[in-house]
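Researcher: Predict the fold of Phage protein.
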Amino acid sequence: MNAEQLNQALQMTISEMSTASTNSMITSNLLSIQLNEQVAENQRLQARVDELEALLDEQTKPAEGE
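Model: Structure tokens for Phage protein follow.
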């Protein structure tokens, strides 16, 4: 293998590694966005659960004087 072939092989390797790195970063960023959205949805649902539990407690507590 001569120097020109070696340089071409190294350039291809660098290009492939750069592409793989870019793809990994994109995937990581998308997963981060999805995680943040899911956390927000979970918080919204937990707030609704808390609200419904409070309503249930209010409806099922004994009336005063009983």
